[in-house]
Amino acid sequence: MAPYDRLRTGGSPRPPKNADTWWYAAVAGEASGSFSTRVRTRTRRACLGAVLLLTVVYAGLVLTATGRRWGDAAVTGRRADAVAVTVLRDHPSLAGLTTLSLVLGCVALIAEGLIRKRYALTGAAAGGVVTALAVTGLLQRYAPRPRTVDTAGALVPSGFPSLQTTLALGVALGLVLVVPYRYRALAVGAATLWAAAVGAYTIATGHHRPGDVIAAALVVLAVTSGLLAVIARRGKVRPGPPRGPALPGLPATVPLALLALAGLGAGLWLLGDTLALPAAAPYDPADLRLAHRCGQALAAGVVAATGLTLLAVLRRVDVDGPPAAYRLGGPFVEAAGVPHDGELVGPFTEDHDHEIS
Hints:
Strand content: under 5%
Mean pLDDT: 82
């Protein structure tokens, strides 16, 4: 067992559970209270919390009439928002740039892992993105929802969750597996800001409602946290330096934290006013514009908070460190004496009394 996987000193006097027995350590490869067990507990809780929040968002914004009316108002209000209309009119190339950035993001994720020769972690990161996209597609196709038709009577396909946001944030959070520990916060923070911009663009163009972007962020967080729980279950995590990625990541994590606080604060503050829309048209253009800005703020805040949550869960946790040192025992080791800390020993030592001629 690696030094960082030893039991904590001064453990609680609670009665032992099944996970505390000797055969658990033999089968699972770790002891209860070990570092990998604590990381797995944190990631599983993050996964469960994301699933619960996704259920709340789905029930509130898809299954209720008030939530659907708010989402429709947020999409319709983009036409009443002069800022969004001006940006989209003056910069028609944003659509192509968004698609190109998604492609380059996928290439950068895979290239970073392959260049650093982290083949297994690269496959895990790519598998996490594919799994998130698959879950998003299944929710879009099979999640129960009221049938929505347009003005011509045609059935409107569901955009819950957003595929573009899922792909962008999946790439952003997948960087935790392939980027060096020292630069992880910087890379994940900057990529999460890009994912928030992609989500905001899909709302401004009317392709997705704010709830679609929020749900996509929660899907990616759940899938990535579950993947990290599996990695921790296999003992592939180890403690990172206490002052590793904090300072290099400040240029990205500080704007990300400000975006999360401002987005969630402003969105929740405006939400009370925008939910009081009348049940039928006509609507006041000012109310529609307010709903659009509220949706943009909430979506950007949730995406930013998702990246910060994963970084907090993996605080001082390295998934890309060198293999842990181990010690071998035996009669030759005992004859050589107790090794010092950090000294690797094996079955054959420098004890000249046991020299083989």
